[in-house]
Amino acid sequence: MAEMLEEFGIATSTGQKVHRGLRAEGLIQTQVGMGSFVTKSAAEKLAESPHDG
Questions:
Q1: What is the pTM of this model?
Q2: Is residue 19 within 8 Å of residue 1, measured between CB atoms?
Q3: Nearest-angstrom CA–CA distance, 43 and 26
Q4: What pLDDT was estimated at residue 53?
Q5: Which whole-number Å values give the CA distances from 47 to 3, 8, 14, 40, 52, in the listed order?
Q6: Which letter, b or e, does each residue of 10-42 get, where b requires 16 or more Cβ atoms within 10 Å of its Cβ?
Q7: What confidence score (pLDDT) does residue 15 get?
Q8: How far apart are CA 16 and CA 14, in angstroms?
Q9: What dihedral angle (degrees, nearest 10) is formed by the CA atoms of 43, 31, 22, 14?
């Protein structure tokens, strides 16, 4: 996550707040030693929503 924050010029504290918010909303889940992953329900919602591309 640190590399992505640096690449986009985002403060670490802001990135942490966003990460906590995504977890609280059930959009991602974190597995210790593995990382954070989009939940199945969030992925399904994204697949159903219209998007460009």
A1: 0.73
A2: yes
A3: 11
A4: 56
A5: 27, 25, 27, 10, 12
A6: eeeeebeeeeeebeeeebbeeeeeeeeeeeeeb
A7: 95
A8: 5
A9: -130
Can you give the pLDDT at residue 8? 96
Question: Which tens digit of pLDDT belongs to each residue from 1-53?
Answer: 889 999 999 999 999 999 999 999 999 999 999 999 999 999 888 888 777 65
CA angle 32, 37, 40 (to 5 degrees): 125
The letter for the amino acid at 30 is T
**How far apart (Å, rounded) are the C-alpha atoms in residues 8 and 2?**
10
Pair of tokens at residue 20: 């906590």
